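Quiz preparation item.
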């Protein structure tokens, strides 16, 4: 049977992908543009995990949040945060329901792939001063060649003084770079596999070229750099051993496309989810259930260490919150709170790229502009090391987003056995809470200039607000 529009009734049964722009009226498009401008400001400022924590703390202070440990007791509507070693942050808004009924949690990560300076980085070779690096996270090493880089980090001097360093972000400041080999002499390099063409030990950064003193002086190029660092920051070479200095792309986020529909920039994995979750938390008001965001470090290298998601800081911070809400607190109460909580692992997923369509299974791949991405499972080689959200959990979030008018889509990370990846979802799930991955689709993930759709950024924010309000 066909109706007068030439449609069969069965066609109503089919799931159709939606484009978020089609679902947004002019008012919502304008709201999305304003929101994304603010996000781009955050992205251009927070280029390291420490800087992201600092920017987040400034925002929280302005939104009426106070340090958790300054509060002896907590009541509905109270807004608090706690920071771990300047690299991890948890913030919460206390809800009307008893905290023992569980929390609404969104977890995102603050770290991004980059080049870290080695403990003894400075050397000279053939009339140049260079810095040795050790790359952090999963990068395609060739993407970091011939890119203007900025130096960000902290140096802890022998007397305990902390020196913050940022060089290369202002137009008048110098930048740094890892030089590439000219194509005229790259025959042997071009014959290698891409993974082998640029060795990790070859990611040495050009830092100086004017010698110090007379020609009789040894290591005059290295000494010239040390003298300049000492004049600028009062540091000596030994101070670099107790430093954390990162090299990141110096460029600012930019609109991409004639219609400015996309955002290009470094570190959108996963700071796009950090910002959207942060804004959602601050804007929901007094919720029914206590809402919480955990912004963690070290996700790109396995979530290890005492600032990664595997650290006890997550459970410890929740224990501090619960103990201020529940008389007669004990560990069993904490375990019940965690078990009754539900969580979104707010991390990005791969967006279909027409230039590399052969690695994607199109039916189950997210698109730029398709809305926030629900990812039931991650992992690789047979879903290894994934959380794999239960059908009930996916259905609950799907219903919630549909009711709130959130445009969403689903996506996997490429074809089966093509590769894979992971998030913090399985670590959150280890506390017996239900977890679903939910984030923004990205093209060029882990590159120095990642691409997202402004519509997807706005839908992530809208979806996280619906989750916190639901």
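Solution:
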């Amino acid at each position: 049977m066909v109706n007068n529009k030439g449609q069969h009734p069965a066609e109503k049964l089919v799931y159709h992908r939606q484009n978020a722009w089609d679902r947004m009226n002019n008012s919502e498009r304008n709201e999305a543009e304003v929101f994304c401008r603010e996000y781009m400001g955050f992205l251009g400022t927070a280029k390291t995990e420490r800087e992201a924590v600092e920017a987040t703390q400034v925002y929280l202070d302005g939104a009426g949040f106070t340090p958790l440990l300054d509060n002896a007791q907590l009541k509905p509507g109270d807004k608090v945060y706690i920071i771990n070693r300047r690299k991890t942050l948890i913030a919460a808004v206390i809800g009307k329901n008893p905290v023992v009924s569980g929390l609404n949690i969104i977890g995102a990560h603050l770290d991004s792939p980059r080049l870290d300076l080695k403990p003894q980085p400075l050397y000279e070779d053939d009339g140049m001063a260079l810095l040795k690096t050790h790359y952090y996270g999963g990068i395609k090493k060739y993407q970091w060649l011939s890119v203007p880089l900025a130096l960000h980090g902290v140096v802890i001097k022998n007397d305990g003084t902390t020196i913050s360093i940022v060089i290369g972000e202002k137009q008048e400041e110098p930048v740094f770079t890892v030089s590439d080999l000219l194509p005229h002499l790259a025959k042997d390099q071009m014959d290698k596999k891409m993974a082998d063409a640029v060795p990790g030990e070859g990611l040495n950064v050009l830092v100086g070229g004017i010698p110090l003193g007379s020609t009789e002086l040894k290591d005059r190029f290295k000494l010239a750099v040390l003298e300049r660092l000492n004049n600028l920051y009062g540091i000596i070479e030994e101070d670099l051993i107790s430093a954390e200095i990162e090299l990141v792309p110096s460029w600012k986020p930019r609109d991409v496309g004639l219609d400015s529909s996309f955002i290009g920039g470094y570190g959108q994995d996963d700071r796009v989810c950090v910002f959207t979750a942060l804004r959602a938390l601050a804007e929901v008001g007094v919720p029914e259930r206590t809402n919480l965001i955990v912004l963690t470090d070290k996700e790109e290298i396995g979530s290890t260490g005492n600032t990664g998601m595997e650290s006890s800081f997550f459970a410890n911070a929740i224990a501090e919150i619960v103990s201020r809400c529940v008389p007669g607190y004990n560990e069993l109460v904490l375990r019940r709170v965690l078990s009754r909580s539900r969580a979104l692992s707010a991390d990005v997923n791969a967006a279909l790229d027409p230039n590399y369509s052969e690695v994607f299974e199109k039916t189950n791949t997210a698109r730029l502009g398709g809305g926030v991405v629900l990812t039931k499972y991650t992992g690789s080689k047979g879903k290894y090391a994934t959380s794999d959200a239960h059908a009930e959990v996916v259905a609950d979030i799907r219903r919630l987003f549909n009711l709130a008018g959130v445009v969403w889509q689903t996506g996997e990370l490429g074809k089966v056995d093509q590769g894979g990846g992971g998030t913090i979802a399985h670590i959150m799930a280890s506390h017996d809470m239900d977890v679903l991955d939910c984030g923004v689709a990205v093209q060029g993930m882990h590159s120095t200039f990642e691409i997202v759709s402004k519509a997807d950024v706005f839908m992530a924010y809208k979806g996280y607000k619906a989750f916190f309000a639901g």
